[in-house]
Amino acid sequence: DMSFYGMGFLYITSFALSLAYGMFQKRASLAYKRRSTTMNDYAICVTGLPQSATDESVLRNWFQEEFAKALGKPQDDKEVQVYGVSIGYDYTDRMWEVECMTTRLIESVEVRFLHYNAEETTAAIAEPQGTTLDEMLAEDKKRVHAWFEEGSGQEMRSGEVF
Questions:
Q1: Contact partners, residue 80, CB within 8 Å, separation at least 6
Q2: Fewer Cβ close by (within 10 Å): the C or N end of the chain?
Q3: Residue 118: pLDDT band by 50, 70, 90 thresholds?
Q4: Do the Cβ atoms of 88 and 97 come closer than 8 Å?
Q5: How far is CA 102 from each of CA 32, 82, 105, 133, rounded to the nearest angstrom?
Q6: What span, in angstroms and rounded, lies between the C-alpha atoms of 127 and 129?
Q7: Average pLDDT of the residues in 98-105
Q8: Could you read off the pLDDT of 35-46 as tens digits, one per residue?
Q9: Helix/strand/coil for 71
Q10: Does the structure show a pLDDT above 70 at 115?
Q11: What is the 3-state secondary structure (H, E, C) of 103-115?
Q12: Integer Cα distance of 145 and 16 in angstroms
């Protein structure tokens, strides 16, 4: 039957074309990366730091000093400028809690800025917990602040800095 062969030909052709397109996309992506400047060109990832290293300004100053020493330049040299430090926190033990908080925050933004019926939406989100959305957000904020307070027993740990 000719339709069987025709379908087989189309299947094989479309499969081969999809592979060729994938290779083209990969090459185009690599070419773009070679000719474009991105944040990766100016950032490094440092691992193995003490997990208690969570003060960005202290880390930035330390890196500034160390880079200046390593390059034999004065610490205030513009060529050795550390503009900022971003800490990668390990929150795997709180992942579900963070996801719930993020969802509540997004829902509150939608309620406030997209002009939904605030009473209906807040009731639907907060009713199962027996509290208002604003009260839930305030509680979330307290809980997150406790993660960053020294001696709270719930401190966030790091180990990676960008």
A1: 64, 67, 68, 71, 73
A2: N
A3: low
A4: no
A5: 33, 30, 5, 13
A6: 5
A7: 90
A8: 998 877 778 888
A9: helix
A10: no
A11: HHHHHHHHHHHCC
A12: 54
What separation, in Å, do the N-terminal and C-terminal C-alpha atoms of the chain show? 62
The pTM for the full model equals 0.53
Phi-psi region of 155 (alpha: psi -120 to 50; beta: other; left: phi over 0): beta
Identify residue 32 by its one-letter amino acid code: Y
Lookup: tokens for 66: 């160390």
**Structure-block tokens of residue 102:** 């993020």
CA-wise closest residue to 67 among 77, 58, 57: 77
* Cα 47 to the center of its chain, rounded Å: 17
Per DSSP, the residues of 4-17 read: HHHHHHHHHHHHHH
Average pLDDT in the chain = 82
Residue 50 has pLDDT above 90, yes or no: no
CA distance 85 to 162: 6
135: CB partners within 8 A, 6+ apart: 126
Helical segments of 36-153, H only:
56-71, 95-113, 118-126, 133-147
